[in-house]
Each structure stands twice: as C-alpha cells, then as structure tokens.
Amino acid sequence: MTSNTAPDPPPNLLHVQFKNPEYLSYLSHLHIVQPDPSHPAPDPAHPLTESNVMSYFATSPFFDRRSNNEQIRMQNIANGLAPGMGMGARQEETELRRFTGLEYVLVHARPPACFVVQKRWRSSPSEATPLAAYYIINDSIYQAPDLYSVLATRLQSTVYGLKSSLSTQRRARPSFDPRRGHHGRFIVPDPAPTTTSTANPTNSHQTDTHDDTALEEEADDDDEIDFEDVAAQPTVPVAKRARFD
C-alpha cells in the first residue's frame, strides 16, 4: 500500500551545525597508533590538521557524494589507505584538476581552530566557479550564508523594528477632534482629601441650640406676615370703543 503523504522537505543547511565526536576520537587514536613523521603531532583534544580535515568534512551532511572528492576517496580506500591517512588537502586539490564537475577544496587553514572549505564547479583545469563556502571552527562545521540570505535577514529585522516602533507611536499619538484638532491626553490630578476637624462637644451643642432658636424666630415672623387683599387692589380701567350702527 502506497502512502500519499508528501516527503519532508530537506533541511535548511544554513541552520545546521555538525560535529562528529566519534570520528574525532578515531583521528586522535589514529595519530597515536600511526604517527605521521612529516607533520607535528596534533592536539588530542583537537586532532584536525590540513591532512585529515577533508576526510572529516566528508562525514558531514554538507558533503555531496557525487563530487569528485568522493571518487578520489574511494580510490584511496581501494588502494588500502585508511580514512584520514590518504593524501593531504593540497595534494587532493592538485589531483582534482584532472576532473571536471563538483569538488570541495580547502582554501584557508589555521589548524586546529579554523578551516575554510569551498564548494566549486570545475569546468577546466584552470577555471572553477565557487558555489558555497563552509567553515570549521573548533571541530564544528557550518555553512557560510550567501549574500541574499544575509540581506534578507537584515531587511526582515529592520522591517520588524520599524513596525514595532510605529505601533508604539500609534498608541501614544494624540487624539484628533474636528472641533479642537489634535489634542493630547492630560492626566487630571486627584482631588485633595477633605479634612474633618474635631470641635468641642460643648461648643457644638451651643451652636445647635442657637440655630434652633433662630429657626423658631423665623417661623414666628412667617406667621405674622400680612397678606394683601386681592379684592382691594385697583382695577385696570377698560377702554370703551365707539359703535356706529
């Protein structure tokens, strides 16, 4: 029964960090058992040198098995040379000039900390086009990003920063009213708390008694008010008009 699910896309090698501790341990043991008199003894903690860095790079997912380097490695194994003990990087580069196609070449070496490997397409013994670059730092292999990836990442970071700052400014911008125009939001301070004074109870009682007496006097004055007689008010004379029959 066949599955209709689509295969997973290949991983983005720009996000891959590769390190092979087993092969590094093998190289350390190999230099102890079979030391190379033409090269100084490497550090057991960092055994990479110019003579074995390409064999270490061949174990990474960045290496293409269809390259000319793989053909040379297979020939060395057929001749009885153990991996890591074949020809050095410079000798391998000279050997690759006889082929055309995909190849990997060591272009910079500062053992044991830093190596740079370049991926090329060779069309003639004197002409090769660079395709990608890889760097090995402290036994870890990375792919160098291309110019398009660098610019795209920088532009995305710039646009995100601008969008965040504009959103912050939009929330803090002043309001607009057709009558008043643009106006800001002012914070009104809280009213001052009212203080209650504690008066003397005796004085308070006297004040209440005085107020009650004043209210009673006003009520008596209201009772003595004389109301005018409405009937006694003068009447307004009515003007008479002449009538002609």
From TrEMBL:
Residues 214-229 have a biased composition (Acidic residues). One of its GO terms (cellular component) is mediator complex. Residues 166-245 are annotated as: Disordered. The keyword Nucleus applies. It holds the Pfam family Med6. Component of the Mediator complex, a coactivator involved in the regulated transcription of nearly all RNA polymerase II-dependent genes. Mediator functions as a bridge to convey information from gene-specific regulatory proteins to the basal RNA polymerase II transcription machinery. Mediator is recruited to promoters by direct interactions with regulatory proteins and serves as a scaffold for the assembly of a functional preinitiation complex with RNA polymerase II and the general transcription factors. Belongs to the Mediator complex subunit 6 family. Component of the Mediator complex. This is Mediator of RNA polymerase II transcription subunit 6. It comes from Sporisorium reilianum f. sp. reilianum.
